[in-house]
Amino acid sequence: MPDTAQLLEIVDRAYNRKSWHGTNLRGSIRGLTSSLASRRPARGRHNIWEIVVHAAYWKYAVWRRLTGEPRGSFPLDGSNWFARSGVNDTAWKADIGLLDRTHRALRSAIESLPTNDLKRSSAGSSVTNFELIAGIAAHDLYHAGQIQLIKRLIA
After folding, report:
1. Residues of the chain by 3-state class (helix, strand, coil), percent to 5
2. Does residue 9 register a pLDDT over 80?
3. Separation CA 33–CA 24 (nearest Å)
4. What are the structural domains of the chain?
5. Which one of 53, 86, 135, 144 counts the least CB within 10 Å of its CB?
């Protein structure tokens, strides 16, 4: 079983550190404008901007489970998917900032988690802390690949 330091390295590589596998989540949105981020690859499909906020939400959800914080403290109303459209670079940058802040909060929770707690589950859950942390890294990489594909489709 890896320790929390090893899992933190995996989470960081999936989010914003150089990795052998290619683009991570933060790298996939580097240099994008709100105009590009809000384009939909097809009618009824999520755009890059919505994926970014979705990723922030799930980083928050894992943070909340690791820390035991109650529901309802995510800064946006709703859960999972948040509609985003239009050209507004200020709002786009604010949502990237939200993604960065939720990643930092998640990192902090992982850093303070004793290795023995990796085998434990949150109250009311059968998913272990190890599975949550490994899963959020996989979630980041899944959406990084999705964003890379969408960028090619909308270009």
Report:
1. 60, 0, 40
2. yes
3. 18
4. 4-154 (1.20.120.450)
5. 86
